[in-house]
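hey can u check if this looks right to u? its 578 residues, i copy pasted from the old doc so theres a chance i mangled smth
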Amino acid sequence: MNMQQMRGIVAAIAVLGVAGCSDGDDAWQPPAAPASPPPSAHPLPQLSPATGAAMPSCDGLAARLSYPDTTITAVNAIAAGTVKVAGKPVAAHCQVLGQMFRRTSPQDGKVYAIGFELRLPLAWNGRFFYQANGGTDGSVATALGPVGGGGPLDNALDQGFAVISADAGHAGPGPDFGIDAQARLDYGYQAVGKLTPMAKALIRTAYGKAPDRSYIGGCSNGGRHTMVAAARYADQYDGYLAGNPGFRLPLAAIANIAGAKTYASLATDPRDIGTGFTQAERALVSNAVLGKCDALDGAADGLVQDTQACRKAFDIERDVPTCGATRDGSCLSAAQKRGIGALFAGATTETGSRIYASFPWDAGLATGGWASWKFNASLTLDTGGVGLIWSVPPEDPATFDGPVFALNGNLATMLARVGSANGVYTESALSFMLPPEPANLDRLKRRGAKMLVYHGTSDPIFSSDDTTNWYEALRAANGGDAADFARFFRVPGMNHCAGGPATDQFDALTALVAWVEGGQAPASIVATARGPGNAGGANADLPAGWSAARTRPLCPYPKVATYKGSGDVEQAASFVCQ
């Protein structure tokens, strides 16, 4: 048995052991990181601001760019206005297309490479942004650089960053790449490690200087990439922007499969597991949650700001009517209350071992986005990940059937297999997908880098409770306070990265740059609702009674946005973080 196998087995035992014996709200507690002295004892370095440079044109750039194991396939001049953000033209830039480490797989015989595009502004601000993409990757999305939230009004490219986007080492959105052992590792963490120095080298060639400051960010799996980079590549980036991070993605996927089993058992139509918790029933529960929790922040405004207090105030058994003989949308059956309540408390295996975190009760359950993750992705996207990308050994892609795998598979077996390794797949998914020692960010902290994390409290696939637990562990590992280098912002009502009854439009990147380069720690971030006419696109989930331009402060945990007691309830200025 080699050392990688041993690490995978130890990681699996650790996760399974914690899941089996947790007596708190959530299963995960990371290994204790060495506690740092209080922040005041060791002032952190202040990084200097970036300075820009100009590139007259893209002419001749292709002939000058080279890097080991890298093929530049094209360099294109992109005229101003070709790319737009919220209707605003992005300035002229060069698009560099290429591949790294092209090879043929010994497992499936297919050709793999790490595909990328790097966009280089002619007027560069001296900064580099790694765009960490979501889902199972597999495509080179336009390298724009997300600033956070839904319906963005700006992006990093428009702000003058050089931005890279990549496919994480495989082409196509399907999970079949998981048969190739190296593609698993590239997807998990190695693509970031390979692309980062290459991109910085090309930037140096293009502008005559390396980036002064480097940032990485994304949402969902992009948030996971970012959190993994914070742990593995703390020397490569100065700012880390993680949105709705699925940093324990394999476990969240198995928990969602557990949800599919529960909803199938409650379904009135066996062809549609969504009939186990209908839209009317989800609206019923959302309204019951609001009835108990909305005004806890001083304003009855359709937002639950304090999810911790709501956990104590709302009880599904007590606060939702119980059906008699018929389910008609005005009640839940006793079986629904037991099953759905258990999922929100934290999904378990058949033998009662905790799989993943609890989920907060919130107001976004009735949305289409929530339903899609719970009733569709659980049978397709999550099953492909668990069965083909993370399991050792993987399922046979020629015969794999996602819904059958989800509804007939054994959860304990799934959990064991994502924690396993062998001679071909030498790292378990709990090694290559998760950040090692997630609460130990001492390298990042000591060099003056900063981390900003946000998470929607109505996210149906990655729980904001899980991220809250991570941040609590980070605080504990840093003398009780990590706010001098890492801050966590919950976004009330927001679904997965965007949408939901929420003020979900905000620019966290600008706040992060001001913190990294100017020492201005974000005391709050103003977020806006996207009503009709919003330049970034309207959010169809907004309640009819809200102002189309409602604003709220997003507050750094553990602070909560609280109504001052007077002032326009639609305006952020009427709330304070406390």
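The CA atoms of residues 124 and 326 lie 64 Å apart.
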